[in-house]
Amino acid sequence: MLRSIRSLFEAIRCKDLEVARLLLEAGMSATVTYADDESGETPLHIAIRTNQPDMVRLLLQHGASLDKVNSNKQRPSDLAIPFPAIQTILKNCDEIQAFVPTITYGTKIVADHTCADWPLLHSKLAWCSTEPNMCSTKSNSNNAYALVDGNDKTYLEMTMRHDASNFIVFDFGRDFLISGIRICGNSSPNMLKEFTLETADSVDGPWTICRVFTAEQKGMDSYNAGRGDNQDFKGLKIKSRLIKLVVNSNHGGYSTCWNGIGFFGLDSKLRDLLKQFQLMHRFNDFINMGFVQVKDLWMVNDADVKRLCRGNAQDVAKVTEALKAARIEENRLTSLDFGVAPIRFHPEGKRLPEFTVIGDAGCEDEISLAFQGDPDVEGVLTKRLVPDLKSGRSIASFNGISLSPVGNYVIEAYSVACPEIFVHTSEPTSIVFFMKDKGNVNDTFSELDSILNL
Q1: Model pTM greater than 0.70?
Q2: Residue 34 near residue 46, CB atoms below 8 Å
Q3: What is the pLDDT of residue 5?
Q4: Other C-beta atoms within 10 Å of 224: how many?
Q5: Which CATH superfamily is 125-268 part of?
C-alpha cells in the first residue's frame, strides 16, 4: 500500500487522518497526482474540496504545494473560498512548513556537533547514476551528471510528468552530515522552483521528507547560456547516505532545467576518525581548514599538521597516525596501469628509460616488478606509489633497470600487499645486442630480425 499513489487519495476521500499520516510519514509525497485521474488534482485539492482542515494542515506539514493547478486551472486557494478555517491555514502555510524538519519521522537528525553552516563539499560524479531508480530522466546524454560535473555549460533538463514527480537520488557512499544545499540556476521559465529533499536507508525507500524549498529565477536568461547564480538553502540537520531531490514545479516552462547542485556537509567518517584518535578537540580546526571529507586527508602535508596542532607535539603524533590510518583505509588500491610504458626495444646491458606505474588516488602501496622470460635484472625493483595532486593519481617511477641477455621479456608490476592486483606490458620489451663495432651492423640487424620472428 505504501507504494501505491492511489492509497493516499483514498485515505483523504475517506477522511482517514491517521492512515494519511502513516503514508506521509513513510515517505509518500504530498504533491503527487496519478495518470488516470482526469481531474489532475493533488491530495491538497481533495482535502480542501471536502473541507478537512486537519488534513490540509497535515499535507502542508509534509510539503504540499499551493502552486499546483488541476485540470480546471484551479489552485488549492481557489477551492478554499467557501471554507474560512482552511483559508486561515493556507495563509499560514509558510509558518507551518517552516517546522517540517521537527515533525518528520525516520530522518536521522544529528544530535552532536551540529553546524548551521558546514563547508561546501566537493561534488563527485560518483554521487549520481543513470539507473531508473536513481534518476527519472532516462536519456544517457541528459542526466544528473550535468549537475555535479563542474562544467558551466552543462545542465539537466527534466520534462514535466503528470503520472509522478521527477527526481534525482544522490548516493554519498556512506553517511554524510548535510546542513544545506546549493542550486545553481537561471532566470528562464524552465528554472526549478519548488523541490523537496527526502532521505531513506535504501534507494527502494521508504522515503521521508526533510524539507520543501522554493528556488527563484536568478542568473542567465537561458539555462543553456552558462552557469547562473547560486542559491543556498540552509538549516538542514540530516545524517544520511542517500538524499533524494524531488522536483515539484518550475516557473512555468515546458520542462525543468538548472545548471548545478552542491551540498554543504561533513563526511561523518571524518568525525568518527577524530573520535577514534581522541582528537575531537581539534574538530573545528579541521573544519576551518576545509578538511570535511576523509578523502581530503591524503592532501594534508606536514605544515598543515603543525598548524592544526598549534605546535602540540602529542597532537602532531596523533594526527599523523590518524592520517596514515585514513589513507590506508580510504585509499585502497583497486587497479594498476602503466603511465609511461616500458620501452619496446633496448640494447643489452643498458639501463631502461624511466617508466611509471599508476594506481588509485591517494594510494601509497608498494609496487614490485616481475619479468616473464627469466632475465638477469639489475636495479631497484620495488617502489612505493606516491600521491600526485596534479594528476589525481598515485605514481611509482622505475629507473635504472637493466635486462640481459638478449631476448623478449614481458614486464609485470604488482602490489606487494595484494599480488592479485597487477598489470603487465601488452608487448614484450626486446633486449637487443649492443653493437660496439660498427662493422657488425649487418649481423646486428639479422639478430634483431630473428628476435622479432620468435
Answers
A1: no
A2: no
A3: 67
A4: 14
A5: Galactose-binding domain-like (2.60.120.260)
